[in-house]
């Protein structure tokens, strides 16, 4: 693959040495563009603002044609939404039994301290 790329680069360099003016003109075209004047900018801005307004209005309206409410507006308008999550939390069918004796004698628990795995540069 690099052979093909080198071959292409060699061809371009050969053509550039034969036609330097053409290459310079093509290279300069890259940096040329539409000159911006006050008039061209104002026409572009009016067109851009119209596109943005159309896009904004299309996203603000839901499928049925009404304006959609934001999340904050929904919670301010409907107070039952505040308690809806709490009702889901209270619907637990079974209570979880915790055996507290498992946590009483944690001092007797033998945990391996692998100090050699720690960072040797760490100084507490």
From TrEMBL:
Record organism: Hyalella azteca
Any Pfam family matching the protein: DFRP_C
Domain named ZC3H15/TMA46 family C-terminal: residues: 32-87
InterPro entries the record matches: GIR2-like, UBQ-conjugating_enzyme/RWD, ZC3H15/TMA46_C
SUPFAM superfamilies: UBC-like
Highest taxon above the source species: Eukaryota
Gene for this chain: LOC108679892
Protein name (database record): RWD domain-containing protein 1
